[in-house]
Amino acid sequence: MVSRRLAYAGLLTAASGAVLLVAMFALDWFSFVEPTQRHAAEKLGVTASSVPSVHSDGWDALPAPRWVLLATCALCAASVVTARRASPRIAARVDLALLVVALTSAGLLLFRGIDPPGPNELATVEAGTYIGLAAALGAAGGAYLTMGALGTGAGAIWADLDAGTSPQGRPAPAVPAPDPNAPHSVAPPGARPPDGPGEPG
Domain residue spans in the chain? Predict the structure, then answer.
């Protein structure tokens, strides 16, 4: 049952990452009307809908968010690989990173869907933006389902990370065994004390 849930979660993650990567370069995310053409059309009495638009994909239209989107695609691939080949502890950490980055990508795309880049009156949101948003949410959902299939949650992973970095969670250093030949050392149990000058030979 766990392996089936893990397979479904991995399929969702892989599909979401692939769709997001393809959509970034193959689909139109925004279309823009050049200001000169817009003003010329208004002077001639032509409607704005008939003015030719310049189409842009997600990579060109979003110079800063595109790196977050690309990181989401990379983490989707890493999530699928680690879920099959790495330990559950490492896989859960990768999926936690994917969850955070994918939700960040979804938030950026939602913001750009409401407030397109450039002058809003010259920009139109195209289908690629909505597909990219759905893919980012799918990647976040796949990461969440994978963590559930691995039997870990975000709180447990954060606690594990905190325990591994805080002084309270570090193991105590090993105490070296005492050297019997060193001065002021304590002889190990069962060792025969050396013969002193006052003892009979």
Answer: 2-27+59-118+127-151
pLDDT tens-place string over residues 81-99: 998 888 888 889 999 999 9
Distance CA 86, CA 10 (A): 14
Spatial neighbors of 46 by CB under 8 A, at least 6 apart, are: none
Q: For residue range 95-120, what is the model confidence (pLDDT) as tens digits?
A: 999 999 999 999 999 999 998 887 66
Residue 117 three-state SS: coil
Q: How far apart, in whole angstroms, are the C-alpha atoms of residue 47 and residue 185? A: 97
Cα–Cα distance between 192 and 30 in angstroms, integer?
87
Nearest C-alpha neighbor of 19 from the set 135, 106, 113, 104: 135
Which carries the bigger pLDDT value, residue 166 or residue 134? 134
* Nearest CA among 132, 145, 85, 76 for reference residue 105: 132
